[in-house]
Amino acid sequence: MSEINFTELLAALDSGALINSADGGSSALGWLATAPAVEVTELLEALARREFIRDDSPRDAGLAVIFRQLAARLRSQSPRGDREHLEDVQLAALKSIYARLPEAYQSRAYLLQVLAIARDSNALAALAELFVAAPLRGSEETAIALSPLMQYRDYDPGALFPRLLDAISQPATAAAVLDLANFVTREQIVDTHPAAERTTTLIGLLGKLAEQLGVIEEKRDQPKAATADLARQVEDGVALAVALCDALAQIGDPAAIGKLYQVSELAHRRLRTEAAAALATLGEEAGEKTLLELVTEPVTRLRVLAYAEELGLLDRIDPEQMSAAARAESELALWLAQPSQLGFPPTSLELLDERSQYWPGYDEPVDCFLFRFRYQFGDAEYANIAIVGPITHAFLADFEEIPHSDIYAAFAGWQAEHEEIYEVDLADWDEGLVYEAERLEPILHDAGYEAVQMIRLGFFLGEKALVARATKDGQPCIAVADVHDVFSYRADTGQRAIGPNEAYAIYKGRKLLRTFNP
Q: How many whole angstroms separate alpha carbon 333 and alpha carbon 299?
């Protein structure tokens, strides 16, 4: 039986089925989750004998799936004191596989993650050696490999350091390595910061980074400065500078003060915050002063408050800056500044509404906040409404003219997940769904809607609702109707118009919030 399953797993890897569970990948992985250690060893040894070619994305993705499953196998056993460690032969096979994988394979990061989750001394020593000798290509891959070590405290960092510190010379890996060194120091897993004997190197690196980022800031108003490559340079440079400031503060060497002042003079608010906190930690009054000034900036407020508590400075901060609304404002600024959102903080934020209400998924009332955020791009402006509380989110559609209650409803409906809450688009209707829709269509006509074009049928805890395009009083709109109610929103043109998705989210959210908040 083991031979059959082992063969199936390798066949699934070769055929690409591991990235398509419908083709059998799921059952093969199920075997890996429960197989005896000897069979896992056979699999790894077989992979260690294989040759892997560049630009083979399906096989790379399949390997990533295998390594993630192996990591999950080890993680599931972690809480027990008798957790399964990697055997010497398994570790040797993993090292051999890593040596064979092309540099472009993202699955290398997941292989290293297996070693991190195993976290016995031999696995960690191998992780450090492979990480330095054959570095990963980017910060995302590096985070995949090392992040498990910031979730556990039951390992010996001596197996990682000082060898892992040699990766500081690589821009893609330096920040993550320092973050890990900072973590084991802050959590008191080690008595002395792992990089304490490399302070001179760290100070020199911080000074060089400060100069580079200063040059980039001088060019920020030039048209060519807004390239993706430059943005990536800034992102990587900021991440490393933040890690360096933290490391130098924890090491406590006064020789770093000069370079920290250099960083504190940059325009980047996150860097100024980190440098100010490091200076304050080293006893510099100017660092405390800058830190207390930065609490008024939404994008830095939460970080400043954390440092102020650590440094005993909370009594010097205006209580308004520590209120729930002020913290929510900061959460939104940080969310908007993420690369996955707009990538930088808004020009302004305005609190529109705050209320405590029951929210789907919560047993107690939740503090909810609506903010208007604005971005100014020369003469152009972009603005919208976002929620902070049970979720932090904003739609692309323009919500500026919608009542606050419906804005809350839109977010609640968008977030709702339940097996009896779903919708079916017109293209997927069968005869039964057509019949249900045609029963609801007259409700729209009776309410004065004309030129009805059905879009989808929604199912909400046993009730049915029709979403349609229509006109009322000559005005195009998106309408939603069930046997109890009909409502609509004007159907404007453009990307930011409220469409069927937003209208139906409002419908769902209205019902949910009215149920929880009668």
A: 5
Question: Per the domain annotation, does 402 fall within a domain?
Answer: no
In a domain, 460, yes or no: yes
Angle, helix 121-133 to helix 88-100, in steps of 10 degrees: 10
**Residues composing the chain:** 518
Q: What pLDDT does residue 2 have?
A: 45
Neighbour count for residue 431 (Cβ, 10 Å): 7
Instruction: Please enumerate in sequence order all residues whose Cβ is within 8 A of that of 207, keeping only pairs 6 or more positions apart, or say none.
Output: 259, 262
Distance of CA 150 to the CA centre of its chain: 16
User: Among all chains, which residue has been given the structure tokens 């304050």?
Assistant: 280
Q: Which of the 8 DSSP states describes residue 83?
A: P
**Strands of the 366-377 sheet, one edge to the other:** 348-357, 366-377, 380-388, 393-394
- Is residue 333 domain-shared with residue 469, that is, in the same domain? no
Rg (CA), the chain: 28
The pLDDT score that the predictor gives to residue 376 is: 92
Whether 56 and 131 map to the same domain: the answer is yes
Instruction: Give the pair of three-digit tokens for residue 414.
Output: 């968008």
In a shared domain, residues 428 and 366: no
> In which domain, by residue range, is 100 found?
1-152
Do residues 39 and 129 share a domain?
A: yes
Averaged over successive runs of 10 residues, the pLDDT of the chain (518 residues) comes to 65 80 56 85 93 91 92 74 76 97 96 96 97 92 94 94 93 92 96 96 95 82 56 82 96 97 93 96 96 96 96 96 98 93 93 96 95 93 96 94 95 92 91 92 94 94 93 93 91 86 94 90
CA–CA separation, 422 vs 333, rounded Å? 32
Q: Give 177-180's long-range contacts (Cβ < 8 A, gap of 24+).
A: 177/146, 178/240, 178/243, 178/244, 178/246, 178/247, 179/146, 179/150, 179/243, 179/246, 180/146, 180/149, 180/150
**Joined tokens for residue 215:** 């040059």
Number of folded domains that form the chain: 3
Residue 93, burial from CB neighbour count under 10 angstroms (0-12, 13-18, 19+):
buried
What pLDDT was estimated at residue 36? 87
Say how far apart CA 96 and CA 48 lie, in whole Å.
Answer: 6
Report the amino acid identity of residue 205: L
**Residues 71 and 113: beta-carbon distance below 8 Å:** yes
Number of CB atoms found within 10 A of residue 472's CB? 17
For residues 359 and 377, the answer to whether their CB atoms sit within 8 Å is no
In a domain, 275, yes or no: no
Q: Would residue 200 count as lying in a domain? A: no
- Note the pLDDT of residue 237: 87
Task: Give the pLDDT of residue 27.
Answer: 61
**What is the Cα–Cα distance from 308 to 318, expressed in whole angstroms?**
12
Max Cα–Cα distance, the chain, nearest Å: 80
pTM higher than 0.70, yes or no? yes
Integer Cα distance of 75 and 110 in angstroms: 13
44 lies in the same domain as 114 = yes
Strands 366-377 and 463-472: unpaired
